[in-house]
Structures are given as C-alpha cells and as structure tokens.
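REQUEST ID: PR-0412
SUBMITTED BY: lab tech R.K.
PRIORITY: routine
TASK: structure prediction, single protein chain
INPUT:
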Amino acid sequence: MIEWERQVRLRHYLEQGLTHTAIAAKLGISRRTIHRWVKGGDLDRALSEAPRYGPRSAVAQKLDAYKPVIGTRLAEYPKLSAVRLFGEVKAAGYTGGYTRVKDYVRQVRPRPPEEALIRFETLPAHQGQVDFAHFRMPWGRRYALLVVLGYSRLMWLRFYPRQHMQTLIRGLEEAFGYFGGVPTELLFDQMRTVVTKDLRDEGGTVVENAEFLRFASHWDFRARACRPYRAQTKGKVERPIRYLRDNFFYGRTFVSDSDLNHQALHWLDTVANVRTHGTLRERPIDRFEHERERLKPLAARPYRSLVLPPERPVRTSSRSMPAVPTIQVERRPLLAYAELAGPGR
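STATUS: complete
OUTPUT:
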C-alpha cells in the first residue's frame, strides 16, 4: 500500500499532467500500481479520509508531584503569591524553575466571584450624596464640595480653600438653602469629618463624629457612610465629579475665588441642572419639581457649634487677581505750566 504522503504527491503530479511513467520515477513505484490506484478509485477514497493522530502522551514534569501541595495551599489561602509558593515547594524538594510555578499558580488560583453592582434609584427627597474634589488654581488648591440629590440628580457645588468640618457644615447649609429643603439622609464617603472609625468589615459598627452628629440632628437628616473601598455605591456624586472636571473646569479661566464660584453657580443653572441626564433621560430641574415638595423644611437658624473654633480668614496670593495696569501722572505746580505757556498767555 502506498503511504498517505505518496498518495498526496501522486494526486499533485496527476493534476499537473505528468505521465504515469514520470510519476512512477518520482515516487519510486511501478506504473501498474499507479494505474490500479487511479482506475479502481482507491486514490480518491484514501485521500477523502484525513489521517488521524492519537493524543500525545503527557510529558512528566518536575512540578507534577507538588501540584497537590500548591492546590491545597491556595484553597486555604487564595492570596498566596507565586514567589511564596515557589519557596515552599522548593523547601519540599522541588528542583525546577520559578516560571513553571508562576504559570501553574496563575491557572489554578481561585478567583472570587465578581460582586454584582445593582443600580438603585431612591425615592424623591430620600437621599443626597456628598463628596469633595480638589482642584489646583494659580493661587492655591481649592476644594469643590458637591451635593447631588439622588432622585432628581439636581446638583449644588461651591469651591472652598479648606476641607474641614467648618467647610462641610457651612457648605451643606448653603446646599440646603439652594434646594429649599433637606433630604432624609446624606451618603458620604469615608470622610474623617463624618466617620472616625468604620469597623463593619470586622463585625463592628460605624463610629461617627460627635460634632457632625449634632449638626445632623439640628438639620434633621441621617448621615450614612459607604463601606471602605466601596465608593461605587456613591456613584450619583462620583460621576458628577468627572463631569465637573470635564465640562466646567477644563478649558476655563478663573481670576479669583469669587469669580470661580460665580462661574460655577452660572454653570449649574444654565448647563448641569438643565441638561438631559444620560441615565434618567430627563432634565434634573424637571425631576426636581417632584422632589422639592417632599424635602424636609429648613432649620430656623444656622447651626452654632460650641466646640469648633472660628474659621480663620484665608490669605490669597497676589496672583489671584490679574495685575491692573496703572498710569503714572507727573504732578507739577501751576507756575511750571505758566512758564511753558510763555508770556502774554
């Protein structure tokens, strides 16, 4: 029988038009064999079936004996590094290289299931989300305090020179005045002015700043804090921060703190709160009409702290305002002008 490779070459030579005699010379077989294979159809049947190869036998590796050890360790401690595991199997007698261990660990390391993030929408006036974002100005760093109502996405913001308790209290009171009321709760990131300790991941509770609790009680809202490293649960204010940087701050010129906040308020009223929101497909100002009447009433007076020191005035650099050109006028007595005019005039 002609082996499969010769069968392929035979078909190739036939398609090129070579004679049986020439093909026999090239393949080292007789013309009678070629004639029998072509005439009887054996060549077509043989080439219609591709050769079948059996599975390659596995090659033993030095790491094979230590794979159960690596698997057991990773099952108990999934975050063990490949370097650490390499040291352990090497101490147990493994003589191979680190790369082999690293590749195997990458294949078998348990991967925790990704936690699904479920978008939730809050009821009107139920929640507001609060966060700071820092910006560099020619006259120093400034902190934008943003408050976003969860239902309508109506936004308020103002820039401050400091990021401390006095700023947060003053800013929230200005935001409540802008909204005309107070939401039931405010959601914060892990701000030290709001949360002093968060022990929820250890089975404990949130320890809130006592002064801020007094402020929240005065304005009748509940303060809530995101879990550590879970800022995505505060997305209604995290995304507006990016929007603020791209749509308002980038490409604009500011000459002072007053100008910065004046432009920010104008941007809120003419752009941010009147645009069609990408998720809601409605304008925040329109949805706010359903939220305004459900907000809690404003407090009768601002909060007066008995423990916070008075806020110090901020020194601004001379660069905060552009230099105003001046004209130097030389002063002369009237007698000098009379001499210039000459006698008789």
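NOTES: The first helix runs from residue 4 to 16.
REVIEWED BY: pending
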